[in-house]
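## Example record

The block below lists the input lines for one assembly entry, exactly as stored, with component labels intact.
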Amino acid sequence: MSLPAITDIERLKGLASNDIQVVHRLYEDYFPRILSFILKNSGNEEEARDLFQDGLVVLFKKAKDPHFELKAGLFTYLYAICRNLWLKKLKRFDRERVTSGEQMEYTINEREVSEQMDDDEELLHESRYQLYRRKFRELGEGCQKILELSLAGRSMEEIVGEMNLSSVGYARKRKFKCKEQLIRRIQEDGNYGELAI
Amino acid sequence: MSETEATYQLIEQYLAGKLEGEALASFEARLASDPKLRSTLALVGEVDAVLDDRDTMAFSQTVAEADKAYFVSTDGHREETAHAIRQKRAVRRFPVWMAVAASVILLAVVGYFTLSGGSRTPSEIFDEHFSSYEVPGTFRGGVDTAKGADSLKMAQYGQAFDVYTAGAFKEAIPLLEEIKASYPEERMASFYLGLSHLELGQAKEAIPSLEKAGRGSYTPFGRQARWYLGLAYLKNGDLDSARTSFHEFEYKGGGYQKAAQEIVKELEKLLSDK
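Predicted structure tokens for the full assembly:
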């Protein structure tokens, strides 16, 4: 693409430091190929978007691991993550792969990535965690804040002060409502059943 | 306090290790006999752990923003382009005194740019912003048609991409044209055919293929094809079409935004010089 060349090592460093420009580049450079694979294997655009995000988070965690060494190309590795995730989901969801004349499959050097690849079940766990994060972002700002403060160990009195709430009793009730809403949304999501613990 | 709220409080205290004595024994007895409660406990525990991972939460948010920027720009492309064209036409209808004032300003601007070195040519702008686009992975197949059209098509792509990757774009073109002729709906063949022509400096020949590959919103390579189409128009000297093409990328974020803004700035200089 018509942007300055960027090496895989630079991409990994950018990921580890949460650099949005690097993530933009990954979308430009890699998403079309992942989308192509998903569309040709019983998936749709929305599923490709979710899967790509899941794959990037797995890659992020690898990038943060000081012992991780990228032995294959970065796209090869990301593609393998997404492909393994997708095929696992297809199997779990009992969906048939497309076998029309339009089906294509990219091949990768399996040996290059298999020794570095997380167990398939671990990849599915990450998909589940991503579901939790998405549902959390769908909550209102107030709910997000009260849950974050609570997880950070703030007392109810501190939360009342920081969020300018009327009382400790109200804050406690609000926190419960937000937590219940989050859990319910997760349980009601169509994907949760297949990903459940 | 409702029963559900009380249960959530107990779950929270249990996970924090704050339940003791009789309260702990009672809760554990409930867990042993209530699978739904066990399931909710496991879920709440896992959700808390995930949300508490602040680094990954922050990164997940970054990815969500990048996803939104990428798709908003794709969705908004046609609507924004039509709006931009209407705006441009509206600006042309102005009274005589404004035309005179505009001419004076224009002369001053042209004079400024002449003295300060002038505008770059479309070719120069193209040369700065064009770079090769990699092939998508490795394709392997057989010519054994008994295995089906899939295998044959993969073999054809494999051959074309081997040649493309080696930089032999002149040889890649007939191979990609053959795929396009056999499978007319193949966007990927059109995309790389357009790229091959561009690599050879054949912008005019690249345009129809890139136009075809760039149609539609959620198509693989669609956004990339529209980017390179803009460059092809630029190289071919069609500045108005180039301006329209880059408009998609100008304000909607994504990896192309900065480059698009630079190109548009130079294009507007060139268009005003005409």
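The mean pLDDT of chain A is 82. The first helix of chain A runs from residue 8 to 16.
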